[in-house]
Specification:
Length: 131
Amino acid sequence: MKCPCGTGLLYFVCCGRFVEGDELPTTAEQLMRSRYTAFTKRRWTYVSQTQTEPFDGTGDESVSWTNLKIHSTEGGGENDSEGWVTFTASFEQAGSTREMTEKSYFLRTGSRWLYEPAKSLTGLPKAFIVG
């Protein structure tokens, strides 16, 4: 089975090793992709464990995530302590196809990358997206 994050790799070679296993993403983009994948598979524990703020443990069950496009990354490499990933995620809800665009902020604490909702920018206009 191909990974939902769109790399074209098999799930357990790509994000599955993070979502289902005990490996840690080594870059902010890997964490972004694995979090998206966790949303597609409704793995709420992983979503909660990979962000700085409390997560209520459930997602909107009426949303079906269909596509992820990474537009850009800034920092977030294996030797960085913070980084940004700008992406668009497509989803279906109530019979309509929709998109959300976000510039997500990630920080590394020790060997673990975490998503920080409070610093992330949602609803970015298309003109802001590079790539």
